[in-house]
Amino acid sequence: MSGRSFSYATEAFEFIEGLENLVTPQDVINAVEKSFGIFGFENFIITGLPNPRESFEQVVLLKKWPVGWFNIYAKEDYVRVDPIIRLCRTTVQPFEWSEAPYDRASEPQAAEVMDRATDFRMKEGFCLPIHGIQGYEACFSMSGAHLDLSPQKKPALHLMAMYAFERARQLLKPSPYNGSGLLTPREREALTWAAAGKSAADTGEILGITERTVTAHIASACQKLEAANKTQAVARALQFKLIGL
């Protein structure tokens, strides 16, 4: 691992450990602003994806957005035509804003959203879709004027964003999940090695079990933690102190 990528991993784990000591949503906002600023991000929002009967303002959890842009976005109901939000509903993988498809000719409102965002230094961005096994949809979207989203940065950003979301949700609505008995020892071991960046094959070799068994343990942990994927399961297991770094 290069010194450059190691610094990103170190920053991610220090950020995660620091979140445990935060007691208010504003504390989370401040921590995200500080740590994500290292990566070039200036603004971010953590929000649910509204259904047709909900307004955008009703589902926002935390934000650091320019006031003017938030007011415009809400007034124009841009959430219904935003290509970033649309892609969030159909993928569980993090993506750059530039990867959200839309056609400028046939979707002028989608183009308008993206164009007007640049007036507030929100030119480039990275987004983490969040899906629960019971259908809950949300996203963590962050932006800046000049970003360098290299492959070395994205895994760290993914984990940081997921954990920040979990901490914010916990502070706003405490989760019922707690206690070391929630996961079996093997499930905790599998998630601990996943948190350290090990693949299922690597973990199987370390623990002396098959890759298939490791995958089964992780899948079981995901179900118990109501996580849509391994990264979300790791974040929740860290949050509930079921595993350590």
Written overview of the protein:
Pfam families: Autoind_bind, GerE. One of its GO terms (biological process) is regulation of DNA-templated transcription. GO terms for molecular function: DNA binding. This is Autoinducer binding domain-containing protein. The protein has eleven helices and five strands; from the N terminus they run ααβαβααβαββααααα. The chain is of the alpha+beta class and 245 residues long. It folds into two domains: 170 residues, 2-Layer Sandwich (Beta-Lactamase); 60 residues, Winged helix-like DNA-binding domain superfamily/Winged helix DNA-binding domain (Arc Repressor Mutant, subunit A), CATH 1.10.10.10. Strands 2-1-5-4-3 form a five-stranded antiparallel beta sheet. A hairpin with a 5-residue loop joins β4 and β5. α1 runs antiparallel to α2, α7 crosses α11 and α9 packs across α10. It is globular, with a radius of gyration of 18 Å. The two termini are 18 Å apart. The N terminus is likely disordered.
Task: Give a quick rundown of the structure.
Keywords: DNA-binding, Transcription, Transcription regulation. This protein has eleven helices and five strands. With 245 residues, the protein is an alpha+beta fold.
List the helices and strands and how they pair.
Layout (H helix, E strand, L loop, with lengths): L2 H17 L5 H13 L5 E6 L7 H4 E5 L2 H9 L7 H6 L6 E2 L11 H11 L5 E8 L5 E8 L9 H19 L12 H11 L4 H8 L3 H14 L5 H10 L6
Antiparallel strand pairs: 1-2, 1-5, 3-4, 4-5
Helix pairs in contact: 1-2, 1-7, 2-7, 7-11, 8-10, 8-11, 9-10
